[in-house]
Amino acid sequence: MAPAASEEKNPVPNLTPQFLYGVKKGVNGGLNFLGDNLLMYPAGSGIAKVSTERYSQEIISLANKGKEITAVALNPTRKLIAFSEYGERPLVIIYDVELERKRKILRCPELKSFEIISLAFSHDSKYLLAQENK
Fold first, then answer.
1. Other Cβ atoms within 10 Å of 59 Cβ, number
2. 6 phi and psi, to 5 degrees?
3. More confidently predicted of 6 and 15
4. Are 62 and 70 in contact (CB under 8 A)?
5. Which of 8, 65, 78, 84, by CA, is between 20 and 30 Å from 45?
6. What is the pLDDT of residue 79?
7. How confident is the model at residue 78 (pLDDT cuts 50, 70, 90)?
8. Predicted TM-score (pTM) above 0.85
9. Is the sign of the CA dihedral 91, 41, 29, 104 positive or negative?
10. DSSP, residue by residue, 67-113
11. The CATH number of domain 20-132, selected from 3.40.190.10, 3.30.360.10, 3.90.1150.10, 2.130.10.10
């Protein structure tokens, strides 16, 4: 059966956000400079990377749609970002800034809380500390 003429003329547009404004309050470590012209902050249900040089913004999405960010950490070399998601089993996402991709998603079944309230990288970035809210 052929689609109706009205369906062909009015396709559903695919909308993608161009800019998210506002910094989400209550996020530990929420605002970071990745370089002289690159700013990172939680916005909506993702992380916004804003270039002040090119006047552009990129959104790093969470692993689970609709969740919220509770903590953010930047490693000492400013090449890795770690951020945590609120949820029954909170998780931590490690994002590589240079390669622009998620490097690792960490899950910890021992956590008894719904949120991780603080994240911190070690001085050599070999370890990541996550503190839960009890």
1. 16
2. -70, -30
3. 15
4. no
5. 78
6. 92
7. very high
8. no
9. positive
10. --EEEEEE-TTS-EEEEEE-SSS-EEEEEETTTTEEEEEEE-TT--S
11. 2.130.10.10
